[in-house]
Amino acid sequence: MKFNRILLKLSGESLMGKQGYGIDSQRLSDYAEDITRICNKGVQVAIVIGGGNIFRGLSGASKGFDRYKGDQMGMLATVINSLALSSAIESLGRKCRVLTAIRMEPIGELYSKPKAVEALERGEVVICSAGTGNPYFTTDTGSSLRGIELEADVMLKGTRVDGIYTADPEKDPTATKFDDITYNEIYNKGLKVMDLTATTMCMENNLPIIVFNMDVPGNLIKVIDGEKIGTYVHN
Hints:
By secondary structure, the chain is α/β, with parallel strands linked by helices. It has eight helices and eleven strands.
């Protein structure tokens, strides 16, 4: 499997490292190094990053926040993470561009597909932040949308576990891992890979996903090199 252009979905929570909140500088630099290494192999990289290490709209809504405002706060959290990651990538000598789904100049340029594709073709890393720019949509849906728009070969979903399991492996020691699974099986088994909107978009637009553990340095390179790690999701 050869990937020319990927959409990398990173979890905001993973950026916390062992701190339990905020951004862990070691985790950030590990991510930046792996991303820079795959760019050096000639892969075009677009990234969507969550904001759960700072603020999650849905959990805010459960604590009495207005959902609309909570989601806007979550979008801003993704922008903070995107700026941190872009800074770490640029410190390694790779140009990086932050595009935002809502107007936020001079923090980032407003996202558009032509602008993003141009930057990717120039070898820049493109970080698409602020989700879809709309409340009630998760960053998983944002990454599905951007992956489809930018005609990525695959969405690489970097998580804290090494693939998709029959149950949550952190809670159920008997959970077994899938190496390969179809979208229909995910629906039929009721597995929580991403939210339903995001999963449906990938299925309908034939965008495959590889779910893998991004918190192990070097794993991203292994996925790009075609090593069998994680779980491959397809039609």
